[in-house]
């Protein structure tokens, strides 16, 4: 069950519209308060990609700046954020400063006269990355069926202006291989993979060079596609490709997070 499914109809509708538009957003929930606070535990808000509240309420302006910064950070690296907005004197007592991260909690200063503490959990909701599968082979069908379970939206159409991350797997397997490779190389992409043997790809690479493709372009193609897990069946080959995509995705998140 997703957060949108347990929220009010207005929240759910707003979240659906953002998802349909392939826009990132975040849910914020107050999980704990201490002292005098305007909003109480359970209060929720839907945040846009710049941290602006679209739906809901989290109290006054005392938490707004911290929530905005945390939402932007959560959407940047795709990981939830827990922030504790507390009065400056309490931060001093704890030996922390604004912006410090201690055991997964980021601290922020509450300058409001109420002097309350508000802990807020922020969950990012990112558009599903797009996996373009070129071809009508058994591997292509297996990959298209399996990919959504690993949070990939699949399509068979390349776009020149993708609104989200787009990776390409060429699973034509003898039916229009060269044309599919040229389409994939038509613009820079984060990942291009070819389903086929190394020997077959070498032959195709020579043809690509003969047709004017640069060596640097051709070198970006991963061939054969996927991790070497001894895959034999179309389903196993699809799994090997998704394993590689998951590995690359996690490595990118780790790199962005330092």
Protein described:
There is one protein chain. With 258 residues, this protein is α/β, with parallel strands linked by helices. It is elongated and about 70 Å long. The strands form two sheets. The chain has a seven-stranded mixed β-sheet, sandwiched between helices. The chain has a five-stranded parallel β-sheet with strand order 9-8-10-11-12, with helices on both faces. Helices cover 35% and strands 23% of the residues.
Element string (H = helix, E = strand): HEEEHEHEEEEHEEHEHHEH
Kindly report the average pLDDT value. 88
Measure the end-to-end span. 31 Å
How big a fraction of the residues is strand? 15-25%
* Largest sheet, strands/sense/barrel: 7 strands, mixed
The total beta strand count reads 12
Secondary-structure class: alpha/beta
The coarse silhouette is elongated
Helix content: 25-40%
Number of helices: 8
Identify low-pLDDT runs.
1-5
The neighbouring-strand order within the major sheet is 3-2-1-7-4-6-5
Gyration radius, rounded: 23 Å
């Amino acid at each position: 069950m997703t957060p949108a499914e347990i929220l009010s109809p207005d929240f759910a509708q707003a979240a659906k519209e953002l998802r349909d538009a392939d826009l990132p957003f975040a849910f914020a929930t107050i999980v704990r308060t201490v002292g005098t606070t305007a909003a109480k535990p359970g209060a929720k808000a839907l945040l846009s990609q710049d941290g602006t509240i679209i739906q809901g309420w989290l109290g006054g302006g005392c938490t707004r700046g911290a929530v905005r910064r945390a939402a932007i950070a959560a959407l940047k690296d795709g990981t939830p954020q827990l922030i504790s907005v507390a009065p400056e004197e309490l931060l001093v007592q704890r030996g922390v400063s604004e912006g410090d991260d201690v055991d997964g909690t980021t601290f922020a200063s509450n300058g409001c006269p109420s002097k309350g503490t508000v802990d807020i959990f922020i969950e990012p909701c990112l558009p599903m990355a797009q996996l373009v599968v070129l071809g009508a082979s058994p591997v292509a069908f297996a990959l298209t069926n399996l990919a959504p379970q690993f949070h990939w939206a699949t399509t068979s159409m390349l776009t020149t202006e993708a609104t989200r991350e787009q990776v390409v797997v060429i699973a034509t397997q003898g039916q229009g291989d060269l044309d599919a490779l040229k389409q994939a190389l038509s613009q820079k992409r984060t990942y291009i993979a070819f389903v086929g043997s190394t020997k077959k790809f070498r032959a195709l690479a020579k043809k690509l060079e003969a047709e004017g493709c640069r060596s640097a372009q051709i070198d970006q193609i991963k061939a054969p596609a996927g991790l070497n897990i001894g895959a034999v069946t179309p389903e196993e080959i699809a799994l090997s490709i998704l394993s590689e995509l998951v590995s690359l995705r996690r490595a990118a998140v780790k790199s962005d997070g330092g």
